[in-house]
Amino acid sequence: MIDNRFAPYGALGLRVALGLMFIAHAYLKLVIFTPAGFAGFLGQVGLPAVLAWPIILAELLGGLAILTGFYGRYVSILLLPVLLGALMVHAPNGWVFNAPNGGWEYPAFLALAALAHGLIGDGGLALKPARLSWNGATASA
């Protein structure tokens, strides 16, 4: 059962946490790892280094959109390939994310959180909540 009185605030909490996580990861890649260092990492794991800037920008701009609720549920769904890519990169490292090169549970959790946000909606205080239409019926939030 969904408690309709508090569900918008639960969705808001999920949205804020997810948006801040994407922004923090973009910041990490920009300031700590540096774009060149992140590009080198991508090359080491067999991905094209040219993906570094698109990933950083997707995390930064996507995180801002999710945080503010500017079509956030759509953005969460659009960012799933980034999270699933991270999951595939970290999967061989084992379960715990503090394992050498990071484990897979954190990217898996974030992918599920992004999917949940996409399904639940933007919740309270969203700038431009996204609405889904199913067979003519509109679902909001």
UniProtKB/TrEMBL annotation:
Cellular component, GO, one term: plasma membrane
Membrane topology of this protein: Multi-pass membrane protein
Regions that span the bilayer: 12-33, 45-67, 74-96, 108-127
Source domain of life: Bacteria
Keyword Membrane: yes
InterPro entries: DoxX, DoxX-like_oxidoreductase
Main location (coarse class): membrane
Localization of this protein: Cell membrane
Similarity field: Belongs to the DoxX family.
Protein name: DoxX family protein
